[in-house]
Amino acid sequence: MVLQHQALAVDRVKARVRVLDRTSGKETDWPYDRLIVATGARSRKLGLAGEDSENVFFLKGLADGIRMRRFIDERQPRQAVIVGAGYIALEVAEALRERNVATTVLYRGANPYSGLEPEMGPKIVNELEAHGVVFRGNVRPFSFTTENGRAVKVATDQGDFSADLFFIGAGVQPNVELAREAGLTIGPAGGIAVNERMETSDPAIFAAGDCCEKVHRVSGRPVLSPLGDTANKEGRVAGENAAGGNARFYGIVGAACVKVFSLEIGMAGITEAAAKKLGLAAVSQVVEANSRVGIYPGAQPTMLKIVADQASGRLLGGNWIGRDGEARKINTLAVALFNDMTLEQISRLDLAYAPPFSPVWDPLLIAANLLKRKVGK
Amino acid sequence: MVLQHQALAVDRVKARVRVLDRTSGKETDWPYDRLIVATGARSRKLGLAGEDSENVFFLKGLADGIRMRRFIDERQPRQAVIVGAGYIALEVAEALRERNVATTVLYRGANPYSGLEPEMGPKIVNELEAHGVVFRGNVRPFSFTTENGRAVKVATDQGDFSADLFFIGAGVQPNVELAREAGLTIGPAGGIAVNERMETSDPAIFAAGDCCEKVHRVSGRPVLSPLGDTANKEGRVAGENAAGGNARFYGIVGAACVKVFSLEIGMAGITEAAAKKLGLAAVSQVVEANSRVGIYPGAQPTMLKIVADQASGRLLGGNWIGRDGEARKINTLAVALFNDMTLEQISRLDLAYAPPFSPVWDPLLIAANLLKRKVGK
Lengths: 377, 377
Description:
homodimer; alpha/beta; FAD/NAD(P)-binding domain; 3 domains; 5-stranded antiparallel beta sheet
């Protein structure tokens, strides 16, 4: 898990990288024609007193996971408190319940996952509680109380929460120090600024992955979106162009999916609230349906919310929540968003129908048909 | 199940429909301003001697299903022979196995489902055989031998097959007689010709559903595609326009999905063979992957084949076969086809990734990345 070589600094005038060989402790200068910065991201810390205690965990790399599992194996914790309710936090909650650890999730927002529509919240909280996870929303943590180097409770504006294991899942922040010190432009979202070719402000230097910003095609704005598939795609583009190619990365549409116990959630685009913040006259439609034709064995309730721009009729985003493989449908929205489709176009899509896989009218078609009545086009 | 009123003829000059009241036996003329023809389709017969025997079944409406179930309940057949291997034929095979009836499927093609890529064949045949269905490809039936009004065997170019229940699943043919006799244009595929507004050759008459042709957006040609979701969409367009509106149906992309026991198959667009018949220089790529990240519990093998036009790089179609909800992914291709996306564009799509739902590189992205090397764009 220890990288042998660590880049310490980039000298853009001499086109050299100062590299530390961690095995020997020697520093040497490596020359480059083209450089790719892929410094990734690290767990965001909250800056709370006591958060560096040995039983307060973060999770970014494999070493973090190994350390946390070893602690659980050796100390057999009975009560865990998780601060945060994003992807990683809730995956940790699920893993802890699998180990029979009593688990409480404290979150600053009213509902889990900051990037979801509020309508999804109650369903996710129900799923957590059905599996023995206590969820407390609108909680602000202040500090950890420690005893002998170990945290014993976290103080919040909703009272104290005791535990023998704490986990902080507050997202990640991009590792941009090397790039900043080299004088590369850092964008408004806090990541390394790159163009479609993954070039930084220095045309000899490319960047890719969680350390750099990407364009959100729906809002047109640069954003941070530290996801593995996006980083992978950017890496290919940066590598190809560093080798003299001319590949392009066209940006993201915010497509993601997540499983919470047996509940599946897919999301794409931007939320209604985010659209309104951008000054768009966003309208939305919620549709409750089934994952299969209602009488077909195994049908499960499903709920879709879509958001559109009232002026243009363009789809802006959607959340799909259900079971029975429903999260696999979110890419229908992802491709529609990539192509700037309007509700009118979406309402006429030819989507696959068979009783085991959807109702005759796919929930997306129902939602588009209903919502297009509320928009200009 | 008996409709009270049956349209016998359309007099376009007088704008009247001759209607038979089946209860009273009386015929009357109904005037119209706008007429919608939605005469549907009927089971295609093979014209074989003996196919009208009481134990030779077709399946189109509910009455057919009730008749067949009653026969099974009362006669307890032990051996069934199915002629055909399309959606309905294989759903019947599954239902018969559920009732513990020994079942043999005879099909004119080498593999089940005429509209699929040949690579899907062995997987489907394996699934059928794993559930006790005998599949025999490249079989031509000649006639049924009957005894006392009941079929006892079907003679084919591969020998005789005995059974006490026969089922013919040879697709459907559009009911166009009323339209043809009224002088409406019948299109090259044999259905009522309509435009995007679902208008027939007479602007006062609309048609919708299985009786009429639709434009396949990939080939640009009129086709028959008797599917419930398409018929539903066309009906809305015809109805809206008959009432003075201006709705449009933009055609189909051939999106469909089907379940054979626990195997799921999604399809969209046209096959490689169909593309070559149209004179396109089609190229294709098969990708074998997993339904989840390989180490994630529950991962199942999945296979995707995509087809593209070598000259333009445009996606022409694809088949996706697997388990674990994979068929729900076919709409990703359906939306890409609707938007005439190229492999280059598809290879850059932002698709949702999470370990329970796909590998980091979605099989569609892998396929597009591989296949774009073989095309001009």
